[in-house]
């Protein structure tokens, strides 16, 4: 009986050592990049960060970006002597200006995904304005999350079976779908152009989207 116990203990120990060796040989990969859209104005990707795995950007990031967080979580970001901890919920949106070298690390216990809208060029000399701007004529459904000289971010929400006011889109925009809705699935990303229309949520569930207008 003692010999059997010693054999079982030895086998378990060898198994643990082998597993540790495999983990050392195959460490978790850094951020995985999935392309979503590529237009003359913006490149859109999804970056997936594994937990507790630093992602080092040795050359920094040369362009400004809009970040949309696709999962709840937290991460750290170190740039030079500055360090920050960022907590976020699914659907949070942040502006990230161009930067030098930095290290980002997902400190959550699960993978997190970030939709990154990488802006390629400078804005037009003058941003057009419409009398039928959705945030003006239909503020119930279209709210400005933030705006600067390169983008305007709209948060869009319709309750079940709601219809909005007629409005006009002048700028091209990246549209992210937060949940399943008529004609789209959660996490869909689409490019939309100029349009004048009235939108309606024909489903029995709320519809939520984020539109990043490109100036």
The proportion of residues forming helix, as a percent range, comes to: 10-25%
Our measurement of the CA-to-CA distance between the termini, rounded to an integer number of angstroms, reads 77 Å
Overall, the morphology is globular
Read across the widest sheet, the strand sequence of neighbours is 1-2-9-4-7
Largest sheet: 5 strands, antiparallel
Number of strands: 16
N-to-C SSE series? HEEEEEEEEEHEEEEEEE
Mean pLDDT score:
89
Rg (C-alpha, Å)? 23 Å
Tally of contiguous helical segments: 2
Comma- or semicolon-separated keywords:
single chain; 215 residues; mainly beta; five-stranded antiparallel sheet; 16 strands; 13% helix
Describe this structure in words.
The protein has helices at 2-25, 134-137; strands at 32-38, 42-49, 55-57, 65-69, 73-79, 82-88, 93-96, 102-106, 112-119, 142-147, 151-158, 167-169, 173-177, 189-192, 195-197, 207-214. With 215 residues, the chain is mainly β. Strand 1 (32-38) and strand 2 (42-49) form a beta hairpin. The longest helix has 24 residues, at 2-25. The radius of gyration is 23 Å and the shape is globular. It starts with a helix and ends with a strand.
Quick structural summary:
This protein is mainly beta and 215 residues long. It has 2 helices and 16 strands.
Helix and strand topology:
Elements: H1 2-25, E1 32-38, E2 42-49, E3 55-57, E4 65-69, E5 73-79, E6 82-88, E7 93-96, E8 102-106, E9 112-119, H2 134-137, E10 142-147, E11 151-158, E12 167-169, E13 173-177, E14 189-192, E15 195-197, E16 207-214
């Amino acid at each position: 009986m003692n010999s059997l116990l010693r054999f079982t203990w030895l086998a378990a120990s060898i198994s643990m050592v082998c597993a540790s060796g495999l983990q050392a040989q195959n460490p978790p990969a850094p951020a995985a990049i999935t392309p979503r859209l590529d237009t003359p104005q913006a490149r859109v990707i999804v970056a997936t960060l594994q937990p507790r795995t630093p992602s080092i950007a040795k050359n920094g990031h040369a362009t400004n970006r809009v970040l949309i967080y696709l999962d709840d979580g937290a991460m750290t970001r170190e740039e030079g002597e500055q360090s920050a901890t960022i907590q976020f919920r699914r659907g949070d949106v942040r502006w990230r200006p161009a930067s030098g070298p930095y290290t980002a690390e997902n400190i959550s216990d699960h993978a997190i995904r970030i939709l990154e809208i990488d802006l390629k060029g400078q804005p037009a000399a003058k941003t057009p304005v419409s009398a039928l701007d959705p945030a003006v004529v239909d503020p119930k459904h279209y709210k400005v999350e933030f705006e600067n000289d390169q983008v305007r971010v709209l948060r869009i929400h319709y309750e079940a079976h709601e219809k909005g006011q007629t409005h006009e889109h002048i700028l091209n925009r990246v549209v992210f779908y937060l949940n399943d809705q008529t004609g789209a699935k959660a996490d869909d990303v689409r490019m939309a152009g100029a349009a004048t229309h009235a939108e309606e949520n024909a489903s029995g569930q709320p519809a939520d989207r984020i539109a990043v207008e490109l100036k």
